[in-house]
């Protein structure tokens, strides 16, 4: 009986081929892991060329950056941005240490891009570190837009009166001091206007504090809308406000104050007991050659305000001379 021959034994690949296959599998595995990272990691050469992009899988925070590979940042970014980024790369390489930067960037500033990430400009933190033995860096990107928004909100809460939208007293005085400094450095005029709501206590007593708050809120909106971008507007007390007006003399301040007074006088508030009309009294002055700080003009504007109240309210008084007005009656 003839026995059929055995099939040939399967050939065994050389050990070197097994090592190559294993290394390729491990590399693919490693890239799959890195590609799944939510935050992108970019490899950038000294010349600004994007050598590789890993991660960045979180489309809620990042656009896909893979199209950048092989391109130079000089070709895909506005000049101001690529010069800034390239300088960071050079600092990291030349100093051999971590560089941390924060920057604002939108997908519209990058070409090419898939525009498959968040809309609008985003804030990012870049952590940039040199690669050992290579003339290149790794640039880890973290979207910090939420953190920036929180910081901005906290900053606003610390500076702005929540009810009226005007600066709070502390911040207003700081900004007024800054205007005062600019007044001397640039020889610019500076005027100060102070005002408050006439008979505000009666408004609270008759119509309630909620209505009083509505009056202050609307007043803040109307006044802010009537000011210039450089003017500084603050709430300095309960129903008391002040305005710093750069490049403005006493006569110009009076014109502005009268315009604001008229705008407030035209307001009408509907209440359960009928229409409520509100007026304000204002005092204005300008910085003089002997003023060494903002206390003097604030005091003179206050005195002019008291004079406006003494004369019947709903008007503007200006202190433009050297003599302090004769105020012997304090009114609310």
UniProtKB/TrEMBL annotation:
<dbReference type="InterPro" id="IPR050469">
    <property type="entry name" value="Diguanylate_Cyclase"/>
</dbReference>
<dbReference type="InterPro" id="IPR043128">
    <property type="entry name" value="Rev_trsase/Diguanyl_cyclase"/>
</dbReference>
<protein>
    <recommendedName>
        <fullName>diguanylate cyclase</fullName>
        <ecNumber>2.7.7.65</ecNumber>
    </recommendedName>
</protein>
<dbReference type="GO" id="GO:0052621">
    <property type="term" value="F:diguanylate cyclase activity"/>
</dbReference>
<dbReference type="InterPro" id="IPR029787">
    <property type="entry name" value="Nucleotide_cyclase"/>
</dbReference>
<feature type="domain" description="GGDEF">
    <location>
        <begin position="188"/>
        <end position="321"/>
    </location>
</feature>
<dbReference type="Pfam" id="PF00990">
    <property type="entry name" value="GGDEF"/>
</dbReference>
<dbReference type="InterPro" id="IPR035965">
    <property type="entry name" value="PAS-like_dom_sf"/>
</dbReference>
<dbReference type="InterPro" id="IPR000160">
    <property type="entry name" value="GGDEF_dom"/>
</dbReference>
């Amino acid at each position: 009986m003839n026995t059929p021959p055995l099939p040939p034994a399967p050939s065994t690949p050389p050990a070197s081929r097994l090592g190559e296959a294993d290394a390729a599998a491990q590399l693919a595995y490693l890239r799959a892991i890195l590609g799944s990272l939510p935050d992108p990691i970019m490899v950038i050469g000294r010349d600004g060329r994007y050598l590789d992009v890993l991660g960045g899988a979180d489309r809620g925070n990042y656009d896909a950056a893979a199209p950048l590979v092989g391109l130079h940042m000089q070709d895909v970014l506005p000049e101001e941005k690529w010069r800034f980024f390239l300088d960071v790369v050079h600092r990291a390489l030349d100093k051999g240490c971590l560089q941390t930067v924060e920057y604002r960037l939108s997908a519209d500033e990058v070409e090419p891009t898939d525009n498959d990430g968040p809309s609008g400009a985003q804030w990012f933190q870049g952590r940039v570190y040199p690669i050992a033995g290579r003339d290149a860096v790794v640039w880890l990107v973290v979207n910090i837009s939420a953190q920036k928004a929180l910081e901005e909100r906290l900053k606003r809460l610390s500076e702005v009166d929540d009810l009226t939208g005007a600066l709070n007293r502390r911040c207003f005085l700081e900004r007024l001091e800054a205007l005062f400094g600019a007044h001397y450095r640039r020889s610019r005029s500076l005027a100060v206007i102070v005002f408050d709501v006439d008979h505000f206590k009666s408004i609270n007593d008759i119509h309630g504090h909620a209505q009083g708050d509505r009056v202050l809120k609307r007043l803040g909106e109307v006044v802010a809308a009537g000011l210039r971008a450089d003017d500084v507007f603050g709430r300095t007390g309960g129903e008391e406000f002040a305005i710093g007006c750069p490049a403005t003399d006493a006569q110009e301040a009076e014109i502005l104050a009268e315009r604001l007074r008229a705008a407030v006088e035209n307001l009408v508030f509907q209440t359960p007991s009928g229409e409520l009309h509100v007026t304000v009294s204002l005092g204005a002055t300008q910085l003089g050659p002997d003023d060494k700080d903002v206390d003097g003009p604030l005091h003179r504007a206050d005195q002019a305000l008291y004079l406006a109240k003494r004369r019947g309210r709903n008007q503007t008084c200006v202190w433009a001379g050297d003599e302090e007005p004769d105020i012997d009656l304090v009114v609310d």
